[in-house]
Structures are given as C-alpha cells and as structure tokens.
C-alpha cells in the first residue's frame, strides 16, 4: 500500500501483507532466505526488494494514492481519506508526532468514479 507521497518504492516495508497458505512451497524458501540474509538485521527494505518483490510482483494487488504512474497496474484506494493519517504512520513516537499527509493526490491516482477526491 502506498498512501503517502514518500512511499515511492515498489514494496514499502511495514505496509504489505500476504496469505501464508497460498503457494506455501514457494513462500517458505523465500522467507528462509530473507531471514538468513546478511541484510536481515535492520535492513527490511533492501531485503524485501532482493527476496520478496521479484516473487510478489507476479501476483500482487497494490493500492497507490500518489505514485500510480510510476508503478503501472496500481489501483486507487477504494475509500477517501478523511484525515491526514497514512499506513505506517509513526505519530506514536515523539519525533514523528506531526507526521501526516497534507498534499492532494494526483488526478491520475484517484478512482475513476471519484475524481473529486482531493485526498485519497
């Protein structure tokens, strides 16, 4: 999920999920490789790019509010944003208490039936 203009990578650490029973024979070796990687400690984003993304891109649904043109096949979020929160928000930590999304989403990333949504 990419609902922040700063979520400009293929797979944002902490904002993705999967079904652990779908093609488990493929998922288990990927998981094991990720955990054994020398990048595994405090390097979640590079580990995702190197191990998970090449496999996930073959069967993925991505909702994107800001970078949909950069990532073809992305879908608009099906619901309108009513406040400035976003997936992966860290406002529970003092140094991020003012985090929030305050920029309008591009027209191209809005749902076809809701081009009037400024924040999506």
Automatic annotation (TrEMBL):
Q: What top-level branch of life does the organism fall under? A: Eukaryota
The name on file for this protein is: Uncharacterized protein
Q: Which organism is it from?
A: Cherax quadricarinatus (Australian red claw crayfish)
